[in-house]
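Design job #97: recover the sequence.
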């Protein structure tokens, strides 16, 4: 058996594979070593009761997560998983690697990750290469869910929302300045909190106010995370995450403007990542 986990800061998807079939498909809370200790990660994984029934049978665990960008951070997750899967070989890598594997179709291409956070890479089938590192929501993450949520809250607090949007926002959330500042500055997982407002933006995405914000944010993403590669127009560009999935029409508009070839758009990488590992570890035997 092989266990595969893909995690953003908001949610972690798991699939247990036996042979070339999925035995279990489940989700837990997000795992990010920037914000979660070994103990918190262990508790999160142990909440998956059905999965715990198979710990003796799992030979290998492949985990790909946000925040797992260095060996030190990867080790936090690896040690936590090792406490649960004591008989398994455990491999931990960055979520951008999962995105690259999930979108790989046998030809070199770029993969852009736009979920709670933002990142990008080039994958030639052998090496995942990055030009600009992800620097998370305080310093970067342009075009991410957290980025758009931050702009929405800024506009709300500064009373810059159009009246009809302000009314809808107040009716939907009934929150005060104090609530917002407490969640952003005093409570953990501010990036997840900010990204949660993407749903409201999606519900009102046809409003001119949000069309401008979305176009500007996605354009910034392309300029920062994709145009940093000199050859970005020479290959297809795949996108992974909720932002390209829900705002596909705006993404397509920006890519046409930039003369960039769009490849796949995938909301969640887990299904495609599972197929990548099945092809790699089972069908080649």
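Job complete. Output follows.
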């Amino acid at each position: 058996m092989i266990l595969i986990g893909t995690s953003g800061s908001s949610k972690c998807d798991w699939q247990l594979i036996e042979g070339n079939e999925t035995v279990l498909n489940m989700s837990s809370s997000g795992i990010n070593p920037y914000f979660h200790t070994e103990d918190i990660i262990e508790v999160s994984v142990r909440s998956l009761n059905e999965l715990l029934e198979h710990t003796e049978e799992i030979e290998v665990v492949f985990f790909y997560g946000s925040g797992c960008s260095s060996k030190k951070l990867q080790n936090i997750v690896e040690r936590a998983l090792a406490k649960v899967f004591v008989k398994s070989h455990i491999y931990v890598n960055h979520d951008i690697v999962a995105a690259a594997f999930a979108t790989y179709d046998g030809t070199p291409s770029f993969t852009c990750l736009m979920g709670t956070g933002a990142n990008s890479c080039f994958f030639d089938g052998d090496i995942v290469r990055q030009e600009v590192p992800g620097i998370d929501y305080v310093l970067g993450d342009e075009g991410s869910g957290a980025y758009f949520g931050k702009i929405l809250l800024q506009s709300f607090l500064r009373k810059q929302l159009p009246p009809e949007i302000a009314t809808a926002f107040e009716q939907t959330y009934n929150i005060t300045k104090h609530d917002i500042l407490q969640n952003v500055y005093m409570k953990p997982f501010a990036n997840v909190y900010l990204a949660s407002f993407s749903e409201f933006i999606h519900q009102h995405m046809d409003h001119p106010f949000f069309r401008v914000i979305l176009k500007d944010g996605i354009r910034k993403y392309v300029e920062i995370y994709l145009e940093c590669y000199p050859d970005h127009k020479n290959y297809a560009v795949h996108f992974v995450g909720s932002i390209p999935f829900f705002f596909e029409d705006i993404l397509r508009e920006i890519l046409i403007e930039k003369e960039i070839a769009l490849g796949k758009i995938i909301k969640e990488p887990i299904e495609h990542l599972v197929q990548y590992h099945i092809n790699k570890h089972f069908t080649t035997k």
